[in-house]
Amino acid sequence: MHSGPLNWLLQIASITRFGLLSIPQRRGSVAATIFGIAGVVLVLVGVLSIAAGFQRAMVASGAPDSAVVLRSGADSEMVSGFGRAETRLIADAPGIARQAQGALASAELFVIINLPKRATGTDANVPLRGVESAALAVRDNLKIVAGRMFEWGRNEVIVGVGAAREFAGLEVGGTIKVGRDTWPVVGVFSASGGVAESEVWTDATVLQGAYNRGDSFQSVYARLVSPGAFREFKDALTANPQLNVKVMRQSEFYSEQSEMITRLITTLGVLIAGLMAVGAVFGALNTMYSAVASRTREIATLRALGFGRGAVVVALMLEAMLLALLGGSAGGVLAFVAFNNFHAATINWQSFSQVAFAFAVTPPLLVQGVIWAMAIGLIGGLLPALRAARLPIAAALREL
Amino acid sequence: MKFLHLIWGNLKRKKLRTSLTLLSILVAFVLFGVLCAIKHALIGGVELAGADRLVVRHKVSIIQLLPESYKARMARIPGVSLAVHQTWFGGIYQDPKNFFMQCPVEPEDFLKMFPEFRLPPEQLKAWLATRTGAIAGRNTVDRFGWKIGDKIPIMSPIWLQRTWEFDLVGIFEGRDKGTDTTPLFFRYDYFDEVRKTQNWGTGLVGWYTIRVEDPARAAEVARLIDQEFENSPAETKTEPEGAFVQAFANQIGDIALIVAGILGAVFFTILLVTGSTMSQAVRERIGELGVLKAIGFTNGQVLGLVLAESCLLALLGGGLGLGLAALFISRGDPTGGLLPLFHFPASDLLIGAGIAVVLGVLTGVFPALQATRLRVADALRRM
């Protein structure tokens, strides 16, 4: 026999080949292991894809050159408030992009109305936003996909595609009840998957009237001349003694808004997947121990022929990792098929209103899933491999 | 019983396999327990809702406020025995992450309406004597290490954007295991007095809870209440407390359902995988079972022996798993305040035990039946 690293690699290769060829004889326990690991990855990726989808909706909402202004101390639009004079001051601040019609700043009103969810028929908190004419230019990804834009000054609304999908009565030709009035839905809009798609929009002045809000607003959304202009815009507003505001990039604002629900889902997802992983490790251990037990003689023969302990350990580990990889990939593919782009709506605690979004099985999630699978394979393979390497050769050869 | 050592001997024969199987079962049942707790945390509340209580809110949405003057008008409606109001305070204690609910209430009526909050009488007396007094639930008190006499500063972005300071005069316990003891309640008269000085939001409250004299007439009373306020600037929507809580739980929506779905499927997958290992272990020994029959064991005895073994394993794993789950759950909400009702209901504990028995029987019964059907001679040849 040759010696040196090449020989060692050859040894590993031949033991691994033996191991893989004997899989059909223990297909029950091998299948159980792959199944178990696939389950772990499926659950991990599945649950985390909810959080990822939610975050994606939030991130899609904020362009880098757009900002949100709330009252200082407010953690959501619900608890913020401005008078007309303040919103004018904000719109006049340096750094805001301007067009012929004026500054690209939209002072907005944010309230909630109850509408039945299509899935359950029970009432849900649907966000109703009053906007100014600059709103569409502030969010440049906004498109009317059915019907038309509402007319300014009239009791009409347009609804996001997410809202239209989740809540009863929100289609072109439908109506919503605001107080004692009934307002028609005249259009449906998309916002490249962003949060706005969960909202119902109308003219801010019309909404002020319906809700007896006088001439007050809750937030100002602004488009800046460039992402770099944010600093200047923020400094100007915070330095203004007539204002008491909190200025954020939209992306910052939305990631803050999604923090609570992301934390909830991630904690639960990792907790549960962790528990399952422990179960899967036991499953893998069982499989690999039985693999070792059924091949005691064969391994002893190889060792008697001069195969090294190291080669035996590495080969058995390889086998375990291979099974894990198989299970992990299967779980990832299943998760992708079952959950990617699955539409759902949930309540966002921070804004106390519904957000419609799609689950997102992202590449980093899949990688994470496979890493978990490999870790399970590593732990599940190591102990049985060590045992196999430590078998006393003479005794093992005698075993039947 | 005299075969106990035989069963035990069989389990001990392959210690490693037995312990790995046991551990897998254990993990599956820990998972089951945690799942039940999560499910309850998400949709709990519903079964705790009082059958004789109605919730009245603004028709457009719960964030719209109702006049405090409605209380007297509601109390006059036939069939209503008590009306109390609460208002969402939305305050922040130190950090937004330290979330718990706070509400201004009228102490005596409030505690009459919600007997599930248990406050010692002398603490109620202290509360009535302290205008700035507040009571907090056991869960939150323990979480922040508060004690009676502490001053609790809470910043409310909704109400006057200022920091309100309350004196902790009482700590309430929950009557049932599932009672939410995270909220803090303080006095409405103090709340309204401060609002008056700023002339903002005076005389407005969030929502009402009504007690009806006869739960059978709840629907009728709900209609009477909504009629009373029809065509007023603040119309109402009245529904049973259970329906209100259910609608709120539904807002979390499909997510809870999906999570429960995935995890339920996974629980049964683990059981299936484990079950197949256990069945395999019995099948390997069919020859020995033949020997037992040859020396005079009846079919029934062989069946009993195998079943006892698989059931012992399942119950041991299941029991330990459920115990560990209960231990973990008793440490409380793992997310830090997002799931206030995190507990393990006794009914789910029973279901878990039931599943353990079913697992034991199912994994044992098929190979055991196979063994009993076998002729002794054939079985012996398998040795």
Rg over alpha carbons of chain A: 30 Å
The largest pleated sheet of chain B is described as:
6 strands, mixed
Helix and strand sequence of chain B: HHEEHEEHEHEHEEEHEEHEHHHHHH
Query: How many beta-strand runs of chain B?
Result: 12
**Fraction of residues in helix of chain A:** 40-55%
* Helix percentage of chain B: 40-55%
Characterize the main sheet of chain A: 10 strands, mixed
Bin the strand percentage of chain B: 15-25%
Largest interface, Cβ cutoff 8 Å: A-B, 59 and 55 residues
Give me the Rg of chain B, rounded: 29 Å
Report how far the terminal alpha carbons of chain B are from each other: 27 Å
Structural class of chain B: alpha+beta
Q: Helix and strand layout, with pairings?
A:
The complex is a heterodimer of chains A (400) and B (383).
Chain A: H1 5-21, H2 27-60, E1 66-71, E2 82-83, H3 84-91, E3 98-99, E4 102-103, E5 105-116, E6 123-131, H4 135-138, E7 143-147, E8 157-160, H5 161-166, E9 175-178, E10 181-190, E11 200-203, H6 204-210, E12 216-217, E13 219-223, H7 230-239, E14 245-249, H8 250-294, H9 296-304, H10 309-339, E15 343-348, E16 353-358, H11 363-390, H12 393-398
Helix pairs in contact in A: 1-10, 2-8, 2-10, 2-11, 8-11, 10-11
Chain B: H1 4-13, H2 15-43, E1 53-58, E2 66-67, H3 70-76, E3 80-86, E4 102-105, H4 107-113, E5 117-118, H5 121-129, E6 133-137, H6 138-144, E7 151-156, E8 162-174, E9 184-187, H7 188-198, E10 204-205, E11 207-212, H8 218-228, E12 236-240, H9 241-252, H10 254-283, H11 286-294, H12 299-330, H13 346-373, H14 376-381
Helix pairs in contact in B: 1-12, 2-10, 2-12, 2-13, 10-13, 11-13, 12-13
Summarize the structure.
The complex is a heterodimer of chains A (400) and B (383). Chain A is α+β, with helices and mostly antiparallel strands. Chain A contains 12 helices and 16 strands.
List keywords for this structure.
heterodimer; A: 400 residues; 2 domains; ten-stranded mixed beta sheet; two-stranded antiparallel sheet; 21% strand; elongated; B: 383 residues; alpha+beta; six-stranded mixed beta sheet
